[in-house]
Design a protein that fits this description.
128 residues, mainly alpha, 434 Repressor (Amino-terminal Domain), 2 domains
């Protein structure tokens, strides 16, 4: 079975459709030349791949009414806490522990770190 993976550029071109590049860029509040680079996938001057900021991706998501989290996942940034706000929460990679943590009274950062250590000890003990 063949699976087609879209690049960011291909996705942006598809989302833009027949809309003029300048019009789409204006709605995103970015320059049309930057949007053109995003659609090409690389910086025309350097040839390096483009890595848009989280703010730019949010503007794109808003302009095209496209899910921001799906967009960052599609471009490979879903494991980066800079792009994925969910990863900034305690225990982001453990939904069960995160759900339990959210039921606790408010904890400060030091208390959260203690909880993480305790969880790691409990979790490691269960693997033996």
């Amino acid at each position: 079975m063949k699976v087609n993976y879209l690049s960011l550029g291909e996705l942006l071109k598809g989302l833009r459709g027949d809309e003029a590049l300048r019009d789409a860029a204006k709605r995103m509040n970015i320059t049309f030349s930057y949007l053109a680079m995003l659609e090409r996938g690389k910086d025309r001057r350097t040839g390096n791949p483009i890595k848009p900021t989280p703010e730019t991706l949010q503007r794109i998501a808003n302009a095209y009414k496209f899910d921001y989290l799906k967009l960052i996942e599609m471009v490979g940034f879903s494991d980066d806490p800079i792009y994925n706000p969910a990863l900034k929460e305690p225990f982001a990679h453990n939904p069960t522990l995160q759900q339990w943590y959210k039921t606790l009274p408010h904890c400060n950062e030091k208390e959260v770190e203690k909880l993480k250590v305790i969880w790691d000890v409990i979790h490691e003990g269960g693997d033996n």
